[in-house]
Structures are given as structure tokens and as C-alpha cells.
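User: I need a structural model of D-3-phosphoglycerate dehydrogenase from Lactovum miscens for a docking pre-check later this week. Nothing fancy, just the predicted C-alpha cells so I can convert them on my end. Input:
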Amino acid sequence: MKGGLAMKVLMVGYFTEISKINIVRQFPEGWDIVIVPPGEEMLHHIEDCQVIIPDHIKVDHSLLSVAKKLKLVQTGAGYDNVDIDACTQLGIWAANAAGVNSQAVAEHVMALILSYYKNIPFLDAFMKNRIDENQLGYTGSELKGKTIGIIGFGAIGKKVAEFCRAFDMYVLAYARNPNVQSNGFVKMTDFDHLVSASDIVTVHASLNPQTKQLINKEVFKKMKNTALFINTARGGIVNERDLIDALKNGDIAGACLDVFESEPLPTDSELRELRNVILTPHTAGMPDGHKFHKKRYDFFVNNIKRVENGEEPESKLNQLW
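Assistant: Understood. Predicted C-alpha cells for D-3-phosphoglycerate dehydrogenase:
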């Protein structure tokens, strides 16, 4: 803080009271931390905040033009809801938290893979429903020798690859950027080969015009009918209707999903009814509690302090000078 003035940080999203308490505790004492859902109250606070952390809103030129004191738009890993050019035009820093959640998300991916092949949700329900074990029947698999295909080979994709190596799996990866380097044990390949050769296909790309609905009916048709599809990136990368059809028609064997086209996932979504699907409510990057990851907020506080001290933020998305 400069001149003893309190830093006002506006967080916009849907948070429980417990989440709010946990989040506020991570910021320095004396800072004004306002956590509100999208709507009128948000518009009132945006006029005098120095920082906005937007969760469920589009940060465009019209919104930014109202924020006369805004210095930083800080997002998590994804920033598809922020107009970066508008931030630059208005002299506002934009930054994400690239890599901060890589360990958490990669661990979540492995938990989903293991839950699926080891039938953990099914067997847990079987035991708790007190069913006679003579009626038990299931199919599963070891991970050793399976091929996993990683779409997007950034911090999260590379961490997933490391974990899979420990399970003696073969790892394929695809990245749009031709300069992305392999980890040595990872084989970089083209998109079509990856989806057709992999036993598991996991998405770790950002959502942009090139990746919007990248995974569609044609892609699912190219996958093995025994394939497991995983998405912990962004729901918009997948055509959800095509995914549901592929799961129901047997084009793929199963799916593990943490993100969806519409969030929260509608209560009447067919995905909730499919037995070959494991669902989590966009929690892969929040290992410490609902809507809470301590490492994420430590990063946010450090970045806010950098901007307040006249420095560039880490993981900047634009350049102001």
C-alpha cells in the first residue's frame, strides 16, 4: 500500500461463506477484500477497486471503462473471459496464474484415472449399500503399459506426463506450438495420431478460438472404443452433446470430467445419469477446499504487491511499457 491507503481487491464469483472466510485470511490485514456475485453490487464496487479477480464474468471494454482506479486484472490459469487488448488500451495490467495449479490439477487427473480403472466410486457404493459380495462384478485394469495422450503440453500437461511415467505408462503429447519440447520420455506427435493411438486422452489446452469445440464427434470417432476421455481444462473445448452421444453409443468407453460447457453443470444434464462417467464440480485446481487453493492466493497477493510497487506482474498477459 502506498500512502497508507487500503488496497481494494474485488473478487467476482459465487462463493460459500466458508470459502470467503478462507480467502480473506490470505490477504494482508488492512486490505479491503470484497467478494460478490455478478450483478449490481459488483458494478458498485468496480468503480474504486485497484484489482479485480473475475471468476464468472466477462471482463470487456465496457466493464473496464467504469473501473477508473483499476491497475490489475488477475485471473487463475484460464483467462478466456478477459479482453486483453482492452486492458492494454486502458493501461491496466492483465495477468494469469500460469502453472500455480499444475500440481493440484495433475494430481486430480491421476485420481480420476485411478478411480476409473480401479472402479473406486462403484466399489465404494457397493460396500456402503451392503450388497452381497457374491453379486459383485466389474472390469478394470492396471495402468502399466497404457498409452496416455496429452493435448496441450504446458505446465499441467508436463506434470501429468511425469506422474504417468511413474506408473510405467507410454506418453504421447500434442502441442500447437511447434517449439514445445518433449520431456525425453514423452513422444510429441500430431493430433490425429494421438487421439487414435491413446488408451487415455486428457485435455490440458487453454480455451481460445482455435480450441473451441476442438473435441467433437469426428474426434471421438477416431478414438479407440475402449478409450477414456478426461477434461480438466475448459468445458468449451469439447462439444458436450457429441461427448454424451459418444459415451452412449460406445464410441469411447468412459469419461472423467471436471469442467463443462455450462457451469455449474445443470442438474438435468445427461452426464449425471451415465454410469461410465466420473464427475467433479470444477475442483481440480482447488485442493485446499471449495473455491480455495492457498498457493493460488499467495501468488495473487505477491502479484498485487508487485503492481502496487510499480513492477510488472508475474505471468503478465500484456505489456504496458
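Before docking, keep this in mind: The first helix runs from residue 17 to 24.
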